[in-house]
Write a structure and sequence with these properties.
Blueprint (H helix, E strand, L loop, with lengths): L6 E7 L3 H12 L7 E6 L4 H11 L6 E5 L7 H11 L4 E6 L2 E3 L3 H8 L4 E4 L3 E3 L1 H10 L11 E2 L8 H7 L15 E5 H6 L13 H11 L3 E4 L6 E3 L10 H13 L26
Parallel strand pairs: 1-2, 1-4, 2-3, 6-10, 7-11
Antiparallel strand pairs: 4-9, 5-11, 6-9, 7-8
Length: about 280
Amino acid sequence: MRQAIKTSLIISTYNWAEALNLCLLSVSRLSVLPDEVIIADDGSRRDTYDLIKRFQQSFKVPLIHVWHKDEGFQLAKIRNKAIAKAQYPYIIQVDGDLILHKHFIKDHIEVARKGSFVTGSRVLMDDQLSSIMMSTQKTTANIFTPGISNHFNSLRIKFLRNLLADRYHQKDIDSIRGCNMAFWKEDVIRVNGYNEEFEGWGGEDQELAIRMLNAGVKKRVIKMGGTVLHIAHTKYCRSKHQENDHRMLRTLREEITYCSQGISQYLNHNRIPNLGNFT
């Protein structure tokens, strides 16, 4: 029998307390809880802080809020700060606009292997279903629920999950989603975490995965398990997507394994930042 893996669940968020509320509710209803939950907050307003404080009063595991001042889209930076804060060896990473299936952590733990990272997928919900889920605080849906797409991603079949883990989209970088991803903290530190030259939407998760692959960390895929529902929202500004894409392609082309502006700057300063004044 495999020894249980200690996990840190990192949830990234920015100024959407209603979605984060549903995400945290789904976490509280998991069949297997992570050993801690860290909110990687890219500069949200006071309402997000207040929401987290309310959850902290009754949450069954430590719920930690890592925040920095809003200076534009800096997801790579806040994720580095959250990873540096993590106390446990295996990190499972999601976005705050996701609803986690009740066996989400259980599935990820079962798929985890030393020397590998895991990338998953999501089930998309339309605007109407997303509104219903948030208003009713419901955290479950299935393949027959009106308003979902990516139906294949909603299936949970353990035998197929294990069969596909080392076979599905192995060479496909475009399919990597930082919103549903897991890795060993030691592997991420080895490549210096997220590249903070990435600002604005897009590419930071894929570039990290490429550096891990270049460093010899294998890719696994979690399919037919580790399912999440994605709450519909407007698309992020993609003004820096082309610039970020060039950085990612350079990492691929030059087989880069280490970024200069990464997690190392926080590893000796492992404290929750002062929350300061909210606007």
